[in-house]
């Protein structure tokens, strides 16, 4: 079981937890504003863009090659950007905070 805190662009804080699936699916299930997941999680829409909190980035890890290419096209891209459909829920990411980029 991992617990994730989402901070939306309106500064709303949503805490949600799950044992499986992806972070994008968790965000959708919990109606996190700004995470649309339009492509269903196949890394081709970037509507699940988040910025990982600085202190948590090591836990979450860097994007893969295809994900990084998608992210570089995003206006809000920064060095802590991830597409959250590419982050699997697991104990390894318990407690991380993600800022919705869209
Ligand atoms: S849901 Fe489309 S890139 Fe993540």
TrEMBL record:
Alphabetical list of SUPFAM superfamilies matching this protein = 2Fe-2S ferredoxin-like
Domain 2Fe-2S ferredoxin-type: where? Answer: 2-102
- The reply to whether Metal-binding figures as a keyword in the UniProt entry is yes
* Keyword terms: 2Fe-2S, Iron, Iron-sulfur, Metal-binding
- What is the required cofactor set for this protein? [2Fe-2S] cluster
**Secretion signal span:** none
Under the heading Pfam families, the entry gives: Fer2
PANTHER family per UniProt: FERREDOXIN-2, MITOCHONDRIAL, FERREDOXIN/ADRENODOXIN
Which family, according to the similarity comment? Belongs to the adrenodoxin/putidaredoxin family.
- Record's protein name: 2Fe-2S iron-sulfur cluster-binding protein
Q: State the species of origin.
A: Reichenbachiella carrageenanivorans
């Amino acid at each position: 079981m991992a617990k994730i805190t989402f901070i939306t662009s309106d500064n709303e804080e949503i805490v949600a937890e799950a044992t499986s699936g992806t972070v994008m699916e968790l965000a959708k299930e919990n109606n996190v504003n700004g995470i649309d997941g339009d492509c269903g999680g196949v890394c081709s829409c970037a509507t699940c863009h988040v910025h990982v909190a600085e202190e948590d980035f090591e836990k979450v890890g860097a994007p893969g090659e295809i994900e990084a290419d998608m992210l570089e096209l995003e206006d809000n891209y920064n060095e802590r950007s991830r597409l959250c459909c590419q982050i699997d829920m697991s104990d390894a990411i318990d407690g991380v905070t993600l800022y919705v980029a869209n």
